[in-house]
Amino acid sequence: MMKGRTSNTAPSNRSTKNGRRDQKPQKTNGAKRSLEQERLKSLEAKEEAEVSEAVSVTTAQANDDAVNGSSENHQDSESSEVTDKQESVNGLVKDVDDDKRADHLVEEVKEDASDNDIGSGSEKEASEYDEALKQKVESLETRIEKLEEELREVAALEISLYSVVPDHSSSAHKLHTPARRVSRLYIQACKHWSQEKRATVARNTVSGLILAAKSCGNDVSRLTFWLSNIITLREITTSHAFTQTSKSNGSETFTPALEKVEFWIFSRIVESVWWQVFTPHMQSPENVGKKNEKLMGEQEKGSFSISLWQNAFKVALSRLCPTRGEGHECGCLPILSKMVMEKCIARVDVTMFNAILRESEHQIPTDPVSDPILDSKVLPITAGDLSFGSGAQLKNAIGNWCRCLAEDSVEEDEKYFSLLNELSDLLMLPKDMLMDLSVREEVCPSISLPLIKRILCNFTPDEFCPDHVPGAVLEELNTESISDQKLSGVNFPYEASPVTYIPPSSINVAEKIAEVGGDISRMKRNASVIQKKGYTSDEELDELDSPLRFVIDKVSVSPSSGHNGKVKQKDEQVGAVVANVRYELLREVWSM
Length: 592
Prior knowledge:
Elements (H helix, E strand, L loop, with lengths): L1 H22 L7 H38 L3 H91 L9 H4 L1 H16 L2 H20 L5 H24 L4 H34 L8 H6 L2 H23 L1 H4 L8 H23 L31 H20 L10 H11 L8 H7 L5 H9 L13 H13 L22 H12 L2 H6 L11 H9 L1 H7 L10 H15 L2 H10 L2
Helix pairs in contact: 1-2, 1-3, 2-3, 3-5, 3-6, 3-23, 5-6, 5-7, 6-8, 7-8, 7-18, 8-10, 8-12, 10-13, 12-14, 13-14, 16-17, 20-21, 21-22
């Protein structure tokens, strides 16, 4: 009986506990939990092995005692001992079962806590996902907004700069269309957009203007077209800055950038006019042969030179503005031609001065800009011929040239031919007056004292002034130059001044800006008049939106051809396909 009781108790308990363990869900929450479960399983297996071993040992001993016992007394005592051992084994099994039950309860609590952790982790992950999704949406919205801004600016630059043919016309409003269109976008940015967006518009506008100017190459009239537009744009935005003081900082940073572009274009214009027009006139004239040159006297040579350079001035002015060159009124700023001609004539002044003061007419040029004249026939007087009569002839040529420039809408200015004027006055002045420093500073302030001595040494008497230069005059000038060591050397030939640029004043451009935007007094009060509707900018947006429709509408189709309906249908299809969003974005700005 003890054998059956003992053998049935432990397996029953084990099966019950195993079943309970099998019914528990298996969950893994990481490497740490797996290690704990494995450790618990190993402990359980060890305890079960120990219990089984104890039960088997006790049972075997009981069986041996029952079969091999020698006496009944011994059987009773041994039976009692076996019973005690069996009870001890049963108590041990019960203790083990209690320990296992407690361990499983601990495991269940841990699993429940782990389940709670998983639930809270899922909620945290969902919250993080929502936050990431929100950030992604905001990022996409910001990116779309930036792309729309870029499209709007591209559309504005396209219709304002890239789609414009830079030709001169009599209408200032039409000629300054680029300035008007760009100003509408920039003023809108100053009114409603942030500082960063205004800076972006300004930067892209400057880049577009530079690109448009570069595309002109050395075409002087087109470069003048863009220079006139940039100056007008700067004046419009500057006027707006004064009317919108709260936004003036943006325009003040835009203005220096535009002035740098103006200087760059102005320098290109000066250099192009110089090398295209004036430099060729300094070479040997093709229409004057050697025989004709020998027959030409001083008066004929002077007349030829006057005519030659008058033609050069007309060609230069025609390059700057073809419309005015043909005798018509032009919408570009007239001050630009005057500014360019001032720089070019200043160079002509230096080159002629250096060529006339050569020791002989056969002396070769020394500098491609300051001293490039190869043939003395282009000079108003012969090189090296310094006399009272040559001074008078030089003065006559200067007067003719200045009158020619005044007739071509370039005002006569004392700054023109300043060196030649001083040289002619010096040749015609009584030489003893040159001993007075105040007289020299008044008559020839640009000619150094060593060079004055050189001119007087080469002075030759003629019928107008038969006397030589008094020796006392030369000695006085020599003594004065020795006392001042700075004047001991002769700085010759003179160098032409580098190109400089001073932006034209508002007074010089006010008239044309008034033609672009309306009454000048109203322009000063509110520069937003430029933005008002009524200009052709909006209508030309439609042309760019459907360029093929614009072309087909201008093509006359014969009614008898029978293709009118097909052409119209194809036109509508193309118009629907070609429609661009960037022009709609630009309309939104221009309609505000």
